[in-house]
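Friendly challenge for the regulars: who can give me the structure tokens for this chain first? No prize, just bragging rights.
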Amino acid sequence: MSRPVDPLRHHGDAELGEGLLDLAVNVYDGPRPAWLDETLRASLLDVGAYPHPGAAERTVAAHHAREPEEVLATAGAAEAFTLVARLRPWRRPVVVHPQFTEPHAALQQAGHAVTVASCRAEDGFALDPAAVPDDADLVVVGNPTNPTGVLHPAASVRALARPGRLVVVDEAFMDTVPGEPETLTGPPAGPGGDGGDGLVVIRSLTKHWSIPGIRAGYLLGPPDVVAALRDGQTPWSVSTPALAAIGACCTPRARAEAERRALEIAGWRAALVDGLSGLGVEVVPGRASFVLACVGTGVRELLRGRGVAVRRADTFPGLDGTWVRIAVRGPGPTARLLAALEA
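First reply, four minutes later:
Bragging rights claimed.
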């Protein structure tokens, strides 16, 4: 007898099926750069030795004008969330929802009772720092947030900082925003990383670079926090190919390609939003590689019947079955979605 799936552990890949158009997984819909494929193939020559993250972490540090001791390479963002969940005996961890559910699931798995702070639909899912309890010692927030796509002002995120509190910002989709105007990956603004115990920023490379199977990511934070997270990391958890990908995707050449992709995604998203709005569908104004839309009860299932898979949104705390998350794609897939909706 199979165990029921925890709704917090439901992700877009569970929506896929034979013959279905994939608008459920937020992976860039285009070929990888030749230099990235070449890097991954070349890394196989080094898999006879144990991986060491030093070179990749130094490249990340230079990329963000940080010090190497402020960087930790991780096996995707998911490992980072688990490390944070196990870092301390959190008294009152808070997750700002609706957002990617893996941080919440990791905290529960580590035995913590999670408090939810909600961004409300009537406020455009904007972040309200006052909604977070004063006694929270850990706050996790996405920016731009999955699934709403809302890009919160960096000042609003910084306003979450308190003495004795760790603020964790999931920037897994920040690279889909042209220019990354609200990123907090740069040098800390003050002692201890914006005051108190600090600010940790988590980045994923799997979506924008179309390498979800590689599990490549990293986090940035105060040296003492990074050292403690490293102490809790499974030895050699980040593979040689993943470290090669991290290094390759944090170079000036990669920065230029990332910006080109972000601009392309912005154009695709504008066309998708225009099409949805033209059909009378309520859309949340977002800045990421997906769109949150209120299509009504049962429409997701009807779309599957017409060969289109979108991501159910009722597994995100604060949303119900009338919402779906739609991955941004090029003109062909977008036209097919809109035709299915119109029909």
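The mean pLDDT is 94. The two ends are 39 Å apart (CA to CA). Your move, everyone else.
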